[in-house]
Amino acid sequence: MENKMSLPVTDVIVPEGQEVITLGAGCFWCTEAVFQRIEGVINVVSGYSGGFVVEPTYRAICDGTTGHAEVIQVYFDPKKVSLNQLLEIFWGTHDPTTLNRQGADMGPQYRSAIFYHTPGQQKIALELKAQLNSSKVFDKPIVTEITEFTNFYPAENYHQNYFDLNGSQPYCQFVVKPKVDKLKKFFSDRLKA
After folding, report:
1. What count of other Cβ atoms lies within 10 Å of the Cβ of residue 20?
2. How far apart are CA 119 and CA 158, in angstroms?
3. Which domains, and CATH codes, for the chain?
4. What is the pTM of this model?
5. Nearest 10 degrees: CA dihedral of 65, 68, 72, 73?
6. What local confidence, expressed as pLDDT, does residue 60 receive?
7. C-alpha angle with apex 89: 103 to 46, nearest 5 degrees?
8. Are 180 and 32 in contact (CB under 8 A)?
9. Contact indicator for 74, 44 with CB cutoff of 8 Å
10. Do residues 110 and 70 make contact, with C-beta atoms less than 8 angstroms apart?
């Protein structure tokens, strides 16, 4: 039996002085490993968002039939890192131009998605996406879904902090580590000390 962390989060309680954004960039192991290393990020929780099945499991998500994306919830201190900076890192560390795919991972659960929690977050995400597209930063248009946050189910406990606990596994070495290395190369000024 898979160990679920808790019931769905629909009303996110954000500690005073923090913000939260929910991001999908393919496999949540990769995205979690990237965002855990950013200065100003306080907590990262892997999970599932944007779907219609109640209490989905990892197995159900992998079938691609629940409507959910693998995501992370990023709790951050906006005095130390802005949402704009986080979204630049988000778009810079995965391929936002492929629909329902990241590398060899295929299906709607691997889609590029931003689930915004406030109208201000929506505005920033839409403006930055338009700016990146008009500047032709990528060879193809960004297909990242920008959708209002409705629900979040924390992933099973063994998915949390995955790269840090399982970094020597082949998937981590060949898929996750290159994303962390890309973060270190292109966003070194944003890393935690």
Report:
1. 22
2. 33
3. 19-188 (3.30.1060.10)
4. 0.92
5. -160
6. 93
7. 65
8. no
9. yes
10. yes
The span from the first CA to the last CA of the chain, in angstroms, equals 39
Asked about 27 being catalytic, the answer comes back as yes
Q: Compute the radius of gyration of the chain from its Cα atoms.
A: 15
Q: How much is the pLDDT for 1?
A: 37
pLDDT tens for each residue of 108-155: 999 999 999 999 999 999 999 999 999 999 999 999 999 999 999 999
- Report which secondary-structure segment, H or E, holds 180: helix 177-186
46 and 32 Cβ atoms separated by less than 8 Å: yes
The token pair that represents 98 in the structure block: 């492929």
Q: Give the tens place of pLDDT for each residue, 156-190.
A: 999 999 999 999 999 999 999 999 999 999 999 99
Residue 167 in tokens: 């970094």
Point out the catalytic residue in the list 27, 30, 62, 172.
27
The whole-angstrom separation of Cα 150 and Cα 122 is 14
Residue 95 token pair: 């391929």
Closest CA to 96 of 144, 52, 128, 50: 144
Cα(29)–Cα(45) distance, integer angstroms: 10
Residue 32: how many CB atoms within 10 A of its CB?
Answer: 29
Length of the chain: 193
